[in-house]
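P.,

For your records, the input lines for the assembly:
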Amino acid sequence: MDTNELMKEALAYHAEGGPGKIEIRPTKPDATQYDLSLAYSPGVAAPCLAIADDPAKAYDYTIKGNLVAVITNGTAVLGLGDIGPLAAKPVMEGKCMLFKHFSGINAFDIEIDTTDPEEFIAAVKRIAPTFGGINLEDIKAPECFEIERRLVEELDIPVMHDDQHGTAIIASAALINAMYLSGKRIDEAQIVVNGAGAAAIACARMFLALGARRDQITMCDSRGVVTTRRTDLNPVKREFATSRPVTTLREALVGADVFLGVSTAGVLDADMVRSMAGNPLVMALANPDPEISYDEAKAARPDVIVATGRTDYPNQVNNVLGFPYIFRGALDVRARKINETMKLAAAHALAELAREEVPAELAAAFGVDRLEFGPDYLIPKLTDPRLLGRVAPAVARAAVESGVAQRRPDIE
Ligand SMILES: NC(=O)C1=CN([C@@H]2O[C@H](COP(=O)(O)OP(=O)(O)OC[C@H]3O[C@@H](n4cnc5c(N)ncnc54)[C@H](OP(=O)(O)O)[C@@H]3O)[C@@H](O)[C@H]2O)C=CC1
Ligand SMILES: CC(=O)C(=O)O
Ligand SMILES: [Mg+2]
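Structure tokens returned:
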């Protein structure tokens, strides 16, 4: 469908049947005077007093344990940039809808009107008692790193910046499987990361955890390659500064095995893709428009494996494949945090699921007879009903094994 037409339909979708994409509804009987005397005064005093006596009872008598806040300040909304907290709200409502749809987690969005990290941290800390977990979204780098670090450290519920770790987990799953398909090794791969913000830094760190070599990662920001010669780098960019004698993305890509784009639309061209090594992986993940379109990248050379963040092409590398299940696993075992072990478990669970046989109904839903692990089916489809049963338990198990779980539903 033509993009203008799609945008028109998207506006109608958001407006019709009541504005927005989510609502709140009661879950207990509320029809009679007696129901209301239990739900509200005087009965509600009983759970209040129980929680005052033992805060853990909030998980028995309130929605807390299955409620996540999706919180932003609107400073890096998709690839649209700093459009502010109110304009970010449709994306945040969308994340809430996806939480509920894919993992049964209730979520609502909170848009905080500040660009000051301290004010943001203080606001999130003050509302944290309401929630079982906090999904930070679309907060720009480098502030997002300190915001997340502080909130993880200072709160006792799982906090995850989705653009960092959700993205890193899915990109890692795609990388694992692309290496498997091309017969290459992660520790030998030349990787070029375009973007040096939230998603880029977290992806690069996770690639290191998977075995990539720091001296084989080249990162670029809006000014070109992040090199040790530059004097304008913040500390997180410095972590990936290269001494390679290259200054542009075009130079950096010659002979590269992997391109990861988490930057902005249209910065990769067919010649750059052609200059890469054999069987390259191109992950062009900028939303809504990727660094290069799926079709243009595929047309550049026959051996390329292409992923984008979009639903309308094969290989959707998008954090929606992660956050519903990561939080599901974390909430199920009441994990205090989402740690590296849990993230790696999620990435491997996703990669393994893609290598299994695909149910015929799922293939049919995508209008094809068969879906089979290969260059155009690198990671699971986001509507794969097996995701919940695979990724969430893998995350929960990793939480238990790494000592951050506060309950073991399997043995209770
Ligand atoms: N598919 C998915 O699941 C996800 C996709 N994304 C996409 O990734 C992109 C970045 O998101 P996020 O990391 O949250 O945002 P940030 O604002 O944290 O980072 C954006 C980064 O992109 C860099 N950049 C901007 N223009 C260019 C350019 N022309 N060439 C190279 N680098 C450039 C910026 O450079 P500088 O530092 O110089 O300003 C910055 O480092 C967005 O398009 C977003 O939609 C993000 C998360 C998930
Ligand atoms: C997918 C997502 O979170 C983003 O593009 O920002
Ligand atoms: Mg995002």
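Two observations worth noting. The chain has a mean pLDDT of 97. Strands lie at 67-72, 106-111, 133-136, 159-161, 191-194, 217-221, 224-225, 258-261, 281-284, 305-308.

Regards
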